[in-house]
Amino acid sequence: MSVRSKVLKNALLNTGGNRLKIADIFYDRTIKEIRSRPGTKEFDWQTIDSKEKKETFIAALPEADLPSGVEICDAHYLLVMPGAIDPHVHFNTPGYEFRDDFEHGSTAAAYGGVTTVIDMPCTSIPEVTSLAGLLQKVEALQKRSLIDFALWGGISANHFDKLSSNVKELSAAGVAGFKAYVLSGMKSFGDLSYKQIRLAAQKIRLTGKPLALHAEDKTLVLNEKNRLQAQNANSWQDYCTARSSQAEALAVEKLMYIARDTGCRIHIVHLSSAAGLQPVIAAQKEGLPFTAETCPHYLYFTQEDFKNPKIRNFLKTAPPVKHSADRQALWRALARGEIRFVTTDHAGCDPQKEKISDNFWQVYGGIPGVEHRVPFLFSEGFKKGRLTLQQTIDLLSTHAADFFRLKHKGKLSPGMDADMALIDLWSRETVQSTRMHSKGQYTPFEGVTFSASVARTILHGKVIMGENNEAEVSIGYGKFLTVGE
Amino acid sequence: MKKDLISMDDLSVEEIKDYLRAAHIVEDMSLEKRVQYLPGRIMAALFFEPSTRTRLSFESAMHRLGGSVIGFASKDATSVAKGESFTDTIHTVENYSDILVIRHPGEGTARLAAQESFLPVINAGDGSNQHPTQTLLDLFTIEKDLGKIEGLKVAFVGDLKYSRTVHSLIRALMKLNVTDFTLVAPEALRLPHYFMMNDQPGRFRFYETERIETAIQSCDVLYMTRIQRERFPDLVEYEKVKDSYVLTAEMLQEAKEHLRVLHPLPRVNEIAYDVDKTEFAGYFPQAGNGVIMRQAILLKHMGVEL
């Protein structure tokens, strides 16, 4: 596909911290040149932190002097960031499409400023636990994604006997990393004992790729769960009692030891508690290859919110959200770089079918969040002063690209893919489930107003979601990304 | 010149290794041979506070070497009860024996005795200060059970704040190139921070946790201690933690095959009885190693070359 040379004029680019500059970005499928506007200097966010200040500032700027023969697009002085990357989504294709599918998921992602996702290996049929499974999934995903995607390989108890060859083959075929569970609710993707995780880590270390783990201690959680269920205790409180911070902390600590003993990169997915964070910080002080991610729901909600029957079932995840001290600790860890990036763990379902039980254990766990993460983090992180602009962008894109070694992603500089998200930091937008683009239209963020929004999303130089919901391309435009060893 | 054993800190790495070598030699020796070493020699066991285990272990060691034992098991049975000074007791008893083994509640008393007496003095525990024979027998046990000491991963569980056994053993292990420690203790009983300070930052790793399960999968030695009720200013706090530091056989399912669980004994409830039957239980043989190590110590300090 030949792409005409274009320029995105009037872009606000972050130059570090809360600093900005005005630039014009030349690109086709990739970024060709970023030209700082002559006659302008770097300035601080405070210079333009209100609509009025921004208007005044813009009025005084010199016009862009652009060559003829290039197609000109206007960024209207919105923030331009590298396309956001969500390394933790469950788009459920193929096999669980009654919950969500790649068409819906990738469209929702585009609306959320996301140009690349990494899809989990456990929520498709077949699971991506072998080369055969990977090939079937890649085939099934032909022409079904609007955005670029990489895939996770998986290690489950169900296929543990072929661990060694599966790891080698999946890695060679280009998975971004490997996912396993200390505690899994899925019969088709069984959790591993710590001993098995250790063995898996020894094999995965040789690939240089990360082993990502759902970290809640199985013994602690199941002992409590069985005790509670025996008493017919089926409330959200009971669920939260079983899936405690202590269960998370114990699993994280044990995994930290596995990282140390094996040298394998170990990554904790959806970290939810201050107790679980502690060993992550200790490990990093020690220089271990031990990282973590967290999700918007852990940064926004607490168990108090389960008292609200309108969102109670929508808020259910594993692990569950914790308490305000945990939330505070997670934000602090983001600001200190102790948590590497923010993901969504996007996992939708049909809320009329799977979010209605009065028995909280039975309620499907998962939030379709891919559309809300970017405005969320700009609003709650940057605008509220918890994160700098640069940290926000790093947490949404750059760090994930570095971590997973996604080539040409995560940065705006010549040679990189022309993947960009335009962020309006002066708008307010209220979350409405009826306007969501994932298959299941529900969210615990219903009615929450974010003070930032995604205005336009560009992938490989083409608009995949514009200000008027327009797109230059359609489903199928997104490519499968393989990751080298 | 007479040779005393007062504190692990007095010993060089070479000297520690010498004790271990000697203990291995004693162990390989027949009982018939051992008994020929110290006939006619007398060990005075001066126990100013009761410590049945340590005293019996020393007495057994001396008897095994063909020597005999005099002494007392608590100060109530001595002239100290009549008002005799400590140094007078030492100066009297040194005329009755060939070596002094001293246990005393006062810190530094063993060193005082060593300075006063012309006999070799073995410190069998002075206050919360030093108990070098316990440390040497622990080291011997570790080396015997695991084939080496250097580079092992060692976890300590329980009262790490007050336990002199733990303090002394950690220091000795650090000397012997053990660099990886896991410290499992409730907040109130953590290892004092100065133990982790040293002149080689980055060489040693101390990971502190309140979860015993964490340590088990990765360590080679799991050293358990008793959590004593009297260490807690607040009984509620004690009740809260006492059961979190109990080792059970179930917890050991993910242990390395060669893991050794050690304990200076007596245990109360910190090791469940079902652990005794597992291949990991090393604490009773550890007590046996105490007698071996103390034979090696007595021989060394009474001038017998092995």
Describe the 3D structure:
The complex is a heterodimer of chains A (485) and B (306). With 485 residues, chain A is α/β, with parallel strands linked by helices. Chain A contains 14 helices and 21 strands. In chain A, helix 4 (163-173) links the parallel strand 10 (153-154) and strand 11. In chain A, helix 5 (194-205) crosses helix 8 (245-262) and helix 8 packs parallel to helix 9 (274-285). Chain A starts with 5 loop residues before the first strand and ends in a 20-residue tail after the last strand. Chain B has 306 residues and is of the alpha/beta class. Chain B folds into two domains: 8-130 and 290-301, 3-Layer(aba) Sandwich (Rossmann fold), CATH 3.40.50; 132-287, Aspartate/ornithine carbamoyltransferase (Rossmann fold, 3-Layer(aba) Sandwich). Chain B has helices at 13-28, 31-34, 52-64, 86-93, 109-116, 132-146, 164-175, 212-216, 235-242, 283-301, and strands spanning 42-47, 68-72, 99-104, 121-126, 153-157, 180-184, 205-209, 221-224, 260-262. In chain B, the strands form two sheets. Chain B has a five-stranded parallel sheet. Chain B has a four-stranded parallel sheet with strand order 2-1-3-4, with helices on both faces. In chain B, helix 7 (164-175) links the parallel strand 5 and strand 6 (180-184). The mean pLDDT of chain B is 92. At the A-B interface, helix 5 and helix 8 of A face strand 7 of B.
Walk across the major sheet of chain B and give the strand order.
7-6-5-8-9
* Mean pLDDT value of chain A: 96
Give the name of the CATH architecture of the largest domain in chain B: 3-Layer(aba) Sandwich
Count of DSSP-assigned helices of chain A: 14
Q: What series of H and E elements makes up the topology of chain B?
A: HHEHEHEHEHEHEEHEHEH
Oligomerization status of the protein chains: heterodimer
Under CATH, the topology of the largest domain in chain B can be stated as Rossmann fold
DSSP, total strands of chain A: 21
- Principal-axis shape of chain B equals globular
Instruction: Name the helicity range of chain B.
Output: 25-40%
* CATH homologous superfamily caption of the largest domain in chain B: Aspartate/ornithine carbamoyltransferase
- Overall geometric form of chain A: globular
Low-confidence stretches of chain B: none
